[in-house]
Amino acid sequence: MDIDAWVWWLIGAVGLGIPLVLTAMPEFGMLSAGAVAAAVVAALGGGTVAQVLVFALVSVALIAVVRPIATRHRSQSPQFASGVDALRGRQALVLERVDGSGGRIKLAGEIWSARALDTDMSYEAGEQVDVVEIDGATAVVM
Questions:
Q1: H or E stretch covering 106
Q2: CA 39 → CA 1, 62, 67, 124, distances in Å?
Q3: Which of 20, 44, 88, 138 is the most exposed place for a label (fewest CB within 10 A)?
Q4: DSSP at 95
Q5: Residue 37 exposed, middle or buried by CB count within 10 Å (0-12, 13-18, 19+)
Q6: Each residue of 33-71: pLDDT tens digit?
């Protein structure tokens, strides 16, 4: 039984795809894509040298281009904040006097308990304050 070269390349692509799934290493997927490209060249009648060159060029190109982009995206923090993280840095309106021991503010349309970051400071009703952090169910303001 004589198997065509393109079939061997597809078998190689599947063989490279298995470690991709098991180890989550994207480099195996890029090598697998190179093997698929070589299978296409083989199916179109390209010689062995052309097949190997296409495999190497596609694999190296994918690793050189895609890998740095993926690494950069993986190392970046999320672009949006949600939950209490989204409230940090927002302005709030003081409803009841806020000092180091407590008070009330209106933050994002909701009424929150609050305390001043600097325990010596106090903010009167009607003033605008900035939310520094959320400590449990209390907004720390300044």
A1: strand 102-107
A2: 19, 17, 23, 74
A3: 44
A4: E
A5: buried
A6: 999 999 999 999 999 999 999 999 999 999 999 888 888
